[in-house]
Amino acid sequence: KLVTVSVIKADIGSIAGHHKVHPDTMAAAARVLAEAKRKGLIIDYYVTHVGDDLELIMTHRKGVDNPDIHGLAWDAFKKAAEVAKELGLYAAGQDLLSDAFSGNVRGLGPGVAEMEFEERPSEPIVVFMADKTEPGAFNFPIFRIFADPFNTAGLVIDPKMHDGFKFEVLDLYEGKYVILNAPEEMYDLLALIGTPSRYVIKRVYRKRDDEIAAVVSSEKLNMIAGRYVGKDDPVAIVRAQSGFPAVGEILEPFSFPHLVAGWMRGSHWGPLMPVSLRDAKCTRFDGPPRIVALGFNVTRGRLIGPVDLFDDPAFDEARRLAQQIADYMRRHGPFMPHRLSPEDMEYTTMPQVLEKLKNRFVEAKDYTKAGQGRTQGETYE
Ligand code: 13P
Ligand code: 13P
Ligand code: MG
Ligand code: MG
Ligand code: MG
Ligand code: MG
Question: ipTM greater than 0.85, yes or no?
Answer without folding.
Answer: no
